[in-house]
Amino acid sequence: MTGYRQREKPQLDKRSRIFDGAPRKAVGLSRVGIYAGTFNPVHSGHIAFALQALKLAKLDAVYFIVEQQPRHKNGVEHQGHRIAMLRRALLPHPQLDILELPDRHFTVTRTLPRLHQKLPGAQLVFLMGSDVVRYLAEWKAVDRLLASCELFIGRRAGDSEKSIFAALDKTTVESSKVYIIESYAKSISSSTIRRALRDNLPAHGLLQSVYKYVKREWLYLKNT
Fold first, then answer.
1. Residue 169: inside a domain, yes or no?
2. Domain assignment present for 8
3. Is residue 12 a contact partner of residue 47, using CB atoms and an 8 Å limit?
4. What is the extent of the structural domain holding 62?
5. What predicted TM-score, i.e. pTM, was given to this entire model?
6. Beta bridge partners of 64
7. What are the two backbone dihedrals, phi and then psi, of residue 96, each rounded to the nearest 5 degrees?
8. Number of domains in the chain
């Protein structure tokens, strides 16, 4: 159990950037984070987690993949809106970008080969919350993913380290390929933000740039 790498909550230097404003290009990147999810909507917790991964896992960049139809979730906002909100949230962060793929959701058999093709030679590090780890052993061909990639896991509110270890033990992942950290904003969730927006209440964790887009496009209203 103790073989998994656990990190103390660091003091993130938000001014630290590897590229210092250089163009976002995949050419020559050696360690790349892949963050697939719903982002319905994206919030400060998602961004903070990606920045943690950049620093602690020593990544050159993190690419967000906005899934068209995520597993275990129904009634999500249109992918085009979710991508547009994410673009606004990522503007201040040159090392964070979006990778658009044709797959409805991430799969090892279809999406992983596309990633290797787009990012040749890069070591892929998959970012995920502990809520995703619960289902990891159920993914088709997950052993292929775990054999070549690393995992960067953020503990969400309500998930204990014991439960994360139990989920990982159901897979073939090597402990040396796993980072487990305390998320900066582990109590923030998209579902809570959606409820606040529908009830016209303050939405804790919603970025101002995303809030403006939500209001302009009349998203997450009651009875929708």
1. yes
2. no
3. no
4. 28-217
5. 0.85
6. 35, 98
7. -110, 135
8. 1
For the sheet containing 178-182, what is the strand order?
5-7, 178-182, 150-155, 123-129, 31-37, 61-66, 96-98
Looking only at Cα atoms, what is the longest distance across the chain?
Answer: 48
Tokens standing for residue 50 = 């990606």
Residue 21 lies in a domain: no
CA distances from 145 to 125, 140, 213 (A): 10, 10, 35
Give residue-wise pLDDT tens across range 134-146: 999 999 999 999 9
Tell whether 51 is covered by a domain. Answer: yes
Instruction: Name the E strands within 100-191.
Output: 123-129, 150-155, 178-182
User: Do 116 and 94 meet the contact criterion of CB atoms below 8 Å apart?
Assistant: no
**Could you tell me the sign of the dihedral formed by the alpha carbons of 170, 176, 177, 182, in that order?**
positive
* Degrees, nearest 5: CA angle 175-147-163: 40
Q: What is the CATH number of the domain that holds 34?
A: 3.40.50.620
Which residues, 6 or more positions from 188, have their beta carbon under 8 angstroms from its beta carbon? 43, 44, 45, 204, 205
> How far are the Cα atoms of 53, 76, 197, 198, 221 from residue 224, in angstroms, in the given order?
35, 11, 12, 9, 6
Helix (H, G, I), strand (E, B) or coil at 61: strand
Tell me the C-alpha to C-alpha distance, in Å, between residue 83 and each of 38, 76, 117, 159, 210. Answer: 10, 12, 22, 28, 11
How does pLDDT run across 27-79, given as a tens digit for each residue?
567 999 999 999 999 999 999 999 999 999 999 999 999 999 877 677 899 99
3-state secondary structure at position 56: helix
